[in-house]
């Protein structure tokens, strides 16, 4: 097994995750099997309960593990499915060590950070890597060098480095080269962070320097000299508008050649699929064709990272359809106060994402009502699905004050509620329905045509369900539940007949987590397509229909 460890210095939020994911992509394009492990030095066992304001979205893996958004980058860039064991936190390590101590497995020894904690870290990294059967394991160490929390991990890395063969272990350090007000590139922070690494006994093999602009030759030279690496081992990673371009950027700087040489890799033939995707993305961005406007009505909209996977899923779909688009972020509470309604009305599609709790819920319901009444394409995800049920119950079925019991416990019409079994699980400590579950789609439904299948698997993260007691009333009033779980008890997909609405579609699950740049999520693709049609129909009179960008070698888009 070969290991590439990625550390970071100077500041957090440098794009270490994207750098790691990009290196993974570069190696994968050469036919190597790669697997990432993310080490998070915080004490939480997982990211499930962490505040999205602090951490961006909670990403859900197939096995239901809640992790931070870097896993989304990993899965999208490397096109793989990860599991719980690919995330190692301090909490996970200490829990294992303490449990082992309680079982008496340390035979009465004094249990210490070195060797017991560091051994646990090394054993875990090695066994996860071995189980994955990859050729190369990428280990990203969260946080920055010098943090108290990351010390045991860096010590474990130091030990691994001396235990593995030279060509099987590579250390990539990501740092920042800031600019002065006069635009001068400063290397001192990089020098300091490499110094901190070396104090821990670690010498980087490659330095990836993040900067607003490409590093000058003299700055590279300076970093090389002070940090004791070759000039060609200093890789410049300037800011880029599009994250999917990062692998190409790093490659142009020669990173693959450096890794190849140091790790004795011999495969060089490159698969070009990713390059072609990035090219499509570039064409779309530079295009000044009219743009489809997508209103995303959520909470935390000030922080787009909270909806990162949704943003990416929209991008994947648009990339495939050749559709130029613009996301319009609407804070749900603004709608409650009567603001921004005009913007919503002008949108070509309305998306209500997942969420929790009361704040902004009525605004989201308002957005759904507007989408339904004005026949604007609508996509509801998870909470968005549940609120579409609430809206329909109130305004079409006529159940005044219908609600989800998450929002109002004593509503007279609890159309969204905890199922009995969930209630008993919740009493035992509160848990959600998480991860992959099979969904059965009704034959000839919009859902089945979108997925081109009647049995699908998607990731879940929710606690509440459509109340089975109201399904008949909702159905009689015209709402179609076209997908359920295997038991038929949990509603998973809702839609409206196409004669009544051009595209009204919502799902209890989170299709955004399975969307990949090369394989867009079917509901997102169908939604964007509906937005394009809507845009063209509403702008026909003005004579500025949307042009669907045609890509070479890509099937002509017949919808624009
Ligand atoms: N709050 C809702 C529930 O728990 C929806 C969750 C979500 O959107 N992820 O069921």
What's the arrangement of secondary structure elements?
Blueprint (H helix, E strand, L loop, with lengths): L1 E7 L7 H14 L4 E7 L11 H4 L3 E2 L5 E2 L2 H9 L8 E3 H13 L10 H20 L3 E6 L9 H13 L5 E8 L11 H12 L6 E6 L5 H11 L6 E5 L7 H7 L2 H9 L9 H14 L5 E7 L9 H14 L3 E7 H5 L4 H6 L2 E4 L8 H13 L4 E4 L1 H15 L5 E2 L9 E4 L2 H8 L5 E9 L4 H6 L3 E8 L2 E2 L4 H6 L3 E5 L6 E5 L8 E4 L14 H18 L21
Parallel strand pairs: 1-6, 1-7, 2-5, 2-6, 7-8, 8-9, 10-11, 10-12, 12-13, 13-21, 14-15
Antiparallel strand pairs: 3-4, 15-18, 16-17, 16-19, 19-20, 20-21
Glutamine binds next to helix 16 and strand 17.
What do these coordinates show?
The protein has about 550 residues and is an alpha/beta fold. The protein has 2 domains: about 1-275, P-loop containing nucleotide triphosphate hydrolases (Rossmann fold), CATH 3.40.50; about 290-555, Class I glutamine amidotransferase (GATase) domain (Rossmann fold, 3-Layer(aba) Sandwich), CATH 3.40.50. It has 20 helices and 21 strands. The strands form 4 sheets. The protein has a 9-stranded mixed sheet with strand order 11-10-12-13-21-20-19-16-17, with helices on both faces. α12 (about 310-320) links the parallel β10 (about 290-300) and β11. The chain starts with a strand and ends in a 21-residue tail after the last helix. The chain binds glutamine (GLN). Glutamine binds near residues 406, 461 and 462.
């Amino acid at each position: 097994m070969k290991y590439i460890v990625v550390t970071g210095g100077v500041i957090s939020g440098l794009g270490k995750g994207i750098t790691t994911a990009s290196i993974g992509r570069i190696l994968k394009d050469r036919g190597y099997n790669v697997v990432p492990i993310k080490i998070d030095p915080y004490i939480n066992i997982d990211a499930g309960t962490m505040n999205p304001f602090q951490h961006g979205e909670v990403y859900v893996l197939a096995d239901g593990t809640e992790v931070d958004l870097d896993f989304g980058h990993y899965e999208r860039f490397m096109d793989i499915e990860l599991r719980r064991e690919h995330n190692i936190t301090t909490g996970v390590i200490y829990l294992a060590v303490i449990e082992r101590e309680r079982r008496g497995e340390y035979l009465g020894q004094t249990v210490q950070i070195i060797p017991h904690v560091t051994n646990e870290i090394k054993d875990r990294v090695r066994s996860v890597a071995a189980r994955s059967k990859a050729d190369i394991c990428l280990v990203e160490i969260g946080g920055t060098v010098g943090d108290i929390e990351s010390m045991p991990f860096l010590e474990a890395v130091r030990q691994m480095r001396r235990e593995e063969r030279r060509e099987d272990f590579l250390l990539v350090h990501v740092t920042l080269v800031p600019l002065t007000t006069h635009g001068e590139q400063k290397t001192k922070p990089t020098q300091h962070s490499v110094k901190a690494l070396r104090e821990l006994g670690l010498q980087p093999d490659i330095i990836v320097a993040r900067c607003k602009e490409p590093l000058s030759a003299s700055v590279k030279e300076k970093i090389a000299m002070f940090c004791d690496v070759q000039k060609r081992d200093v890789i410049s990673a300037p800011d880029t508008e599009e994250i999917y371009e990062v692998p190409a950027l790093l490659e142009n700087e020669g990173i693959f050649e450096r890794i190849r040489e140091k790790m004795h890799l011999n495969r060089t033939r490159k698969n070009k699929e990713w390059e072609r995707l990035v090219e499509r993305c570039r064409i779309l961005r530079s295009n000044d064709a009219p743009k489809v406007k997508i209103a995303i009505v959520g909470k935390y909209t000030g922080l787009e990272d909270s909806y990162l996977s949704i943003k990416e899923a929209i991008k994947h779909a648009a990339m495939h359809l050749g559709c130029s688009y613009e996301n319009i972020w609407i804070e749900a509470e603004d709608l409650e106060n009567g603001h921004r309604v005009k913007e919503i009305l002008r949108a070509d599609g309305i998306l209500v994402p997942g969420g929790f709790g009361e704040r902004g819920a009525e605004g989201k319901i308002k957005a759904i009502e507007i989408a339904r009444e004005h026949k604007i394409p609508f996509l509801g995800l998870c909470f968005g699905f549940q609120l579409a049920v609430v809206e329909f119950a109130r305004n079409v079925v006529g159940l005044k004050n219908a609600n989800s019991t998450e929002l109002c416990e004593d509503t007279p019409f609890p159309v969204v509620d905890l199922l009995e079994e969930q209630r008993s699980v919740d009493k035992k400590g509160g848990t959600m329905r998480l991860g992959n579950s099979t969904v059965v789609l009704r034959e000839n439904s919009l859902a089945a045509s979108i997925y081109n299948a009647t049995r699908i698997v998607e990731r879940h993260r929710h606690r509440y369900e459509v109340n089975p007691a109201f399904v008949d009333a909702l159905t009689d009033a015209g709402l179609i539940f076209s997908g359920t779980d295997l038991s038929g008890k949990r509603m998973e997909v809702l839609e409206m007949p196409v004669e009544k609405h051009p595209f009204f579609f919502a799902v209890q699950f989170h299709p955004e987590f399975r969307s990949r740049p090369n394989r867009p999520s079917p509901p997102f693709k169908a939604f964007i397509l509906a937005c394009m049609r809507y845009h063209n129909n509403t702008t026909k009179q003005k004579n500025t229909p949307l042009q669907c960008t045609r890509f070479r070698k890509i099937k002509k888009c017949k919808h624009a």
